[in-house]
């Protein structure tokens, strides 16, 4: 199952790492980039490396510092040496950047390309096809700053659609939507998750543990969807050869495949 919730935790707060893993987040992103001030970056990396010596890295991902910064190459080398299965590259602006990072990592390491700039959006098709990239994520706040866009809602609908299309074209998992900045407004968070899911996104970046459960729930099938899937699959068994309708609507192959994905969800999350 593709991860739904990606919880950021500051890379210079090792006392929070295990707590983040206990939140139920599908993936915990230890952040060496925006969450750590420049003066603390070396100590944060060293502390993370010591912690990883006794930790299970299965659900961990590290957001390294961006290409061209003084810390980038050593961050990538640390990820490579510690056996972490996934890396998030901020400010992914070109396929060459992703290829250079992949060349420094074990072949099995997964890369999430964080699209945060106009250059990244323009190059998105090539980025999605780059070696080891398994998913795209949308850095909405930084993108707005770079593009001069004022607003995180409908103003970004075109980019969201493009990200879904390019992910699908490249055979990647559904992309990851950006953060919701309102930490205590769960109605807003629920609205954002529902919109992202309608657009074709499969997960969301989280900046607080309280956001994890609503995000996981929002990207899971509802009870109505589960019941619908059961009706479709039951009718499919009764009509293995011919066309049929469920709830007054014609069922074709894409509908059947969607029903199968919904029916398989609970098995995959156990």
UniProtKB/TrEMBL annotation:
GO biological process entries: oxaloacetate metabolic process
Natural source organism: Paraburkholderia aromaticivorans
Keyword annotations of the record: Lyase, Magnesium, Metal-binding
A single MF term (Gene Ontology): magnesium ion binding
Keyword Lyase appears in the UniProt entry: yes
Domain HpcH/HpaI aldolase/citrate lyase, residue spans: 4-209
One Pfam family from the record: HpcH_HpaI
Keyword Magnesium: yes
UniProt: substrate binding residues: 63, 116
The protein's name in its UniProt record: CoA ester lyase
């Amino acid at each position: 199952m593709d991860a739904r919730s990606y919880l950021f935790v500051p890379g210079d707060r090792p006392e929070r790492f295990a707590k983040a893993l206990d939140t139920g987040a599908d993936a915990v992103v230890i952040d060496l980039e925006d969450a750590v001030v420049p003066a603390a970056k070396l100590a944060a990396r060293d502390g993370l490396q010591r912690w990883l010596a006794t930790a299970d890295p299965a659900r961990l991902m590290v957001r390294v510092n961006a290409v061209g910064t003084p810390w980038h190459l050593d961050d990538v080398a640390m990820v490579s040496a510690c056996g972490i299965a996934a890396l998030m590259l901020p400010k992914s602006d070109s396929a060459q950047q992703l290829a250079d990072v992949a060349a420094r990592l074990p072949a099995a390491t997964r890369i999430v390309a964080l699209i945060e700039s106009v250059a990244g959006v323009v190059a998105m098709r090539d980025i999605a096809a780059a070696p080891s990239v398994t998913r795209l994520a949308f850095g909405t706040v930084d993108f707005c700053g770079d593009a001069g866009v004022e607003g995180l809602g409908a103003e970004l609908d075109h980019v969201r659609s493009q990200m879904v299309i390019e992910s699908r074209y490249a055979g990647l998992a559904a992309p990851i939507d950006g953060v919701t900045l309102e930490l205590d407004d769960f109605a807003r968070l629920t609205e954002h998750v529902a919109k992202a899911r309608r657009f074709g996104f499969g997960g969301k970046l989280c900046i607080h543990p309280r956001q994890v459960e609503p995000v996981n729930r929002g990207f899971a099938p509802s009870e109505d969807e589960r019941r619908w899937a059961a009706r479709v699959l039951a009718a499919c068994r009764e009509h293995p050869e011919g066309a049929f309708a469920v709830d007054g609507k014609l069922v074709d192959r894409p509908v059947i495949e969607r029903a199968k994905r919904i029916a398989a969800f609970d098995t995959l999350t156990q």
